[in-house]
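The protein record quoted in full:
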Amino acid sequence: MKNKLIPITFLQTPTDNSSSIEGLKKFWQKVYPIILNRLNHFDTVWVNACEEEIFAELIFCLFTPQSKAVTCWAAVNDLANRNMIFSAPDTEIAKTIEHVRFRNNKAKYVIKARKLFTSNNKIRTKEKLASFKNIFEARLWLVKNIKGLGYKEAGHFLRNIGIGKNLAILDRHILKNLKIYGAINEIPKTLTTKTYLEIEKQMQNFSTKIGIPMSHLDMLFWCKNTGGIFK
């Protein structure tokens, strides 16, 4: 799989401090081409990526909790270029991903995921995901079976491979903005499964109400707060 990862770049955007729905819509119009560019990229992943590349996206999402996305993708690329993703033990992976937080645990998660998706000495991530009736079933299976992957990370993974556009990726930026725009009454102290799914439904309703697709809202809120889109 050496040097086969799909390249990704940080797409720079303006930031925005508006707190009105009208202001949000105007900002959406401004960054719409950039958001569409990234969504089109995600669509190509599912269509064109091989099994190994899909698995690499999963590893990226295992790395991201409490680490910067750009740093995590660099770590995944480093592993791929060293041909380590599908053969190296967790101790060697941990040494290589030194800039990823909790690297020892996350290296172990890679090994467990690798074993789960391997059949007859071949990685079959895409094949497994295609077997589910819908993305909600796929997400639930991922959460239950992949150590280190919660609802946020599972949704992030499915979105990044082009099949999870209507799933919420509830990180602090998203929750903060959902509260600002009145989609939720308060930011929960902890995100239980029940609370996560309730907020996801509220976000879907908010999306329908204001006419901005769910697939755009996530990245729109990220643009507002961080000035760009990565993964």
Remarks:
- The domain at 19-46+167-229 is CATH 1.10.1670.10 (Endonuclease Iii, domain 2).
- The mean pLDDT is 91.
- The first helix runs from residue 21 to 48.
- Strands lie at 11-12, 118-119, 122-123, 228-229.
